[in-house]
Amino acid sequence: MKKILVLSDIHANYPALMAIQNHVQRETFHRIVNTGDFTVYGTYPNEVVQWFRERGNAICIVGNTDKRVLEILTGKELEKPKREEKRIMYFWTCENLLPENVRYLNSLPEQQGFTAGGLRIGLFHGDFDGLGNPLWPDSPESLFREWAAKFSYQVHVMGHIHVPFHRIVDGVHFLNPGSAGRPFDGDPRSSFAILTVSSGKITVEHFRIPYSVEEVTSGLKKNGLPDIYGEMYRTGRKLN
Ligand SMILES: [Fe+2]
User: What is the pLDDT of residues 33-48, one digit of tens each?
Assistant: First the structure.
């Protein structure tokens, strides 16, 4: 039996990652997966990146916010977001991310696959070129079939939309663990999943667990960052 801890969209929310670690401390994982967006808007990007760097069984890809941070660091102009309170979080991350963690993020691919328990598992952030929009829980089946036809994985693990779901279309699994550090679905608790492969059988369990939002907001306050984020963390809603 192979158990895989599935994480995504932590967005520098180390208190949420620690809550997950405590919750699963009795489990042994064959792999720990992160489908991107390690960074922005929390103030713990180094702690989050280092947590994965220290784990030999971690398998990770970059997300769109990570890519933006890396682009800014190479001198590229930040086009989006436009709102100043959001932009400042990217610039703060760029100024505070340690060189070894920048190197680590730079070393990660945008997609990758691995095998566990004889099954091929693909990792995607969700907004890659070629197929356009990410998959949502209520996307038409035809869209899921397009993904399945394009990639030969039996399990597709995705992030980016910050909404957890598990759908099976023509026997192919599509799993989004939701956002560990910045949920958008109205439930402020940290979201993650455990994927188990046993004798070729796939089981997916979703979890929602509370974490200390105050620790995240006090990190923002301590660094003189905008106080508009407290509401986002407390309600589990996107900041508009
Ligand atoms: Fe994200």
Answer: 999 999 999 999 999 9
Ligand 1: centre distance to CA 1 (Å): 30
* DSSP notation for the chain: -EEEEEE---TT-HHHHHHHHHHTTT---SEEEE-S---SSSS-HHHHHHHHHT-TTEEE---HHHHHHHHHHTT----S--SHHHHHHHHHHHHHS-HHHHHHHHH--SEEEEEETTEEEEEE-S--SSS-SPP-TTS-HHHHHHHHHHS--SEEEE-SS---EEEEETTEEEEE---SS---SS--SEEEEEEEEETTEEEEEEEEE---HHHHHHHHHHTT--TTHHHHHHHT----
Question: What's the pTM?
Answer: 0.95
Q: How far is the CA of 177 from the centre of ligand 1 (A)?
A: 12
Average pLDDT over residues 60-72: 95
> In angstroms, what is the span from residue 146 Cα to ligand 1's centroid?
23
| 2-235 fold | Purple Acid Phosphatase; chain A, domain 2 (3.60.21)
Confidence at 131, pLDDT banded by 50, 70, 90: low
Higher pLDDT, residue 200 or 20: 20
Query: Can you give the pLDDT at residue 231?
Result: 86
User: 162 C-alpha vs ligand 1 centroid, how far in Å?
Assistant: 6
